[in-house]
Amino acid sequence: MKRLKPLLTALVAMLFAAVAVGTSASADSKPNYIISTDATYAPFDFQDKNNNYVGIDMDILKEVAKRNNFTYTLKPMSFNAAAQMVANGQADGIIAGMMINDARKQVYDVSTPYYQSGVAWITKPNSKIKSLSDLKGKTVALKTGTAAAAYGASLKDKYGFKIKYFNDTDTMYNDVVNGNTAATFEDYPVIQYAIKNGMKLEVRNPKNLGNAGGVGFFVKKGENAQLLQQFNTTLAAMKKDGTYDKIINKYLNSKQSTFVGSASDNNTTWGILKSNKNAFFKGLLETAKLTIAGIILASLWGLLLGIMGISESKFWRALSTTIIYAFRGLPLMVLAFFIYIGLPGVIGVKIPAFTAGLLTLILNEGAYTGAFVRGGFESVDVGQMEAARSLGLTHRQAIWKVIVPQGLKITVPSFVNQFIITLKDTSILSAIGILELTQTGTLIVARNSQGFRVWAIVAVIYLIVITLLTWLSNWLKKKIA
């Protein structure tokens, strides 16, 4: 196995380089906090037409940071992941339109409420469902982890409806619009924004909101007391000097074109593509970076696993089989959450999202690569090994000089197919906040509610790139033949 050392050394070096991605030392003496958020929750948190993160939460946070002379790094991702980031110490705080309740107070320390809200229940405008009693036997859409979902679930047995959970707001809304579910529950200002922006839904209880309560800023229990105190003190000052009212009015009373853009920018596919071309390009670039780095490192890791799988040593063969079995059996999203959210709580080291995503691809795609590489080596006629040994080559020399070259030639088409799979799998990493192409689409939809057009654009971009990779695969097959 000595010939594996250069390969293993190169792989380890590249992994260490990957861990360094996204981290840099700052010469600034100001304290810097990591703040997580759900950037698909307008009007609290979303991207505007210039792809800047804005909203009630963002403006309040910016003002708190300015008045207390600190900086912050924003980590936008799905709501549940954002909350877990704080609970596991990956982030210092979360501001995401998050309702204050007793259960959350057991895990987090929370600020004084910066917004009072309530939960609305919503249907299609012409729905025959006029009261909660009409939901009996129907299915209701809820967004996981939200106070509105908890409130809706608390009414399930009383009114006899079933529940269907979603991870993002827009998909939940459109499920109701399309008639797949009968109703949904949502924070009132959030659904107000969506309806004002063209979402074809109707609030059924605008004057009798349920589960009224406060929205707060959360930190991990027992930690970041100073940050929490600064937030509370600044919030009180902002309410006193009128800054707070200006922020609220800015997002609840302004025309939607202020943040979304003109109708021509959102009512046609070309308009959306033209007005968001920079965002789509950056998302595609991030997808390309993940794909290329993932392909290179996963290929090296898979090659190593494949060679281990045909070793003379039972230990190396068993280790290869175990690794391939374990990481092929884990869903990609579960592995991504484990590395990004679960693992740091055990090792005590924060892992950048890009690094966590890259490690996820390496381990998962590398396991699949290792399986077909090993299969390629094993498909080489056993007579080749016997001939090599009869000529005086050692087992190791025969592997490297005879089996590996022939086996790799057989597996080239499988490598290209795996490249395509890796490209598509990067979309799953949007769940941990990596701003690749799929997450870019999610943020645009959260702003303009144009799900069909935005996802059509994203789908076409993926198809173009995959078509180019398919042409490359066919060209390589012809060259090999």
Distance between the termini: 31 Å
Structural class: alpha/beta
Approximate shape: elongated
Strand content is: 5-15%
Counting DSSP H or I runs of 4 or more residues, the number of helices is 21
Q: Please tally the β strands and state the result.
A: 12
User: Helical percent range?
Assistant: 55-70%
Radius of gyration: 26 Å
Oligomer status: single chain
Mean pLDDT: 86
User: Uncertain regions: pLDDT < 50 for 5+ in a row?
Assistant: 18-27
Major sheet details: 10 strands, mixed
Short synopsis of the structure:
Helix content is 60%, strand content 13%.
List the defining traits of the structure above:
single chain; 481 residues; ten-stranded mixed sheet; alpha/beta; 21 helices; two-stranded antiparallel ribbon; elongated; 60% helix
